[in-house]
Amino acid sequence: MVDIKFSGDEREPVIERLETLKNIKLKPVRRYKKFLKGSDGLYYCIVGGSCDWHAIPKEVMEQEKKGQASVYLVIARWLRTRIEIYGGLLKPLFELRGSLSRNEKGDFQFNLKTPTDGILSIKEVAGAKFEKLDEFSAPPVSRFKTLSKEKQRELLTKAGLK
Fold first, then answer.
1. Domains by residue range for the chain, with CATH
2. Is it the case that residue 90 has pLDDT exceeding 70?
């Protein structure tokens, strides 16, 4: 697969789905796109990507450390033509955060195992499990991004856009 980044094109439909599934409204916390506060009082961290590596912003872990309100971690697995959404409390990852590596920004990195029976696990933290909440077709722009640059140019040329 082409090296692609999970962006607003993918995150926005995940947020909309989550709002519908949980019957809540989500608003960004300060300037963060991945970190939101729900009308239910919980904080939500939405991470996603087209590979098994993900990172939780350090600000999200700091919120969990405060303990004033729980953080619900949402992991979106982008699988070319569809997006799977998994969710669960951040607490198990937070409690064993020493098992996670950190990047230059201080974010906590982890890798996913292949889901089994609707449960997604984290390689570095055995007790962290996230249940499948939903699955939907990836937006057309997301599917376009998974194509090679050559195929993208070819399609844009055929459409008269390049």
1. 8-158 (3.40.1350)
2. yes
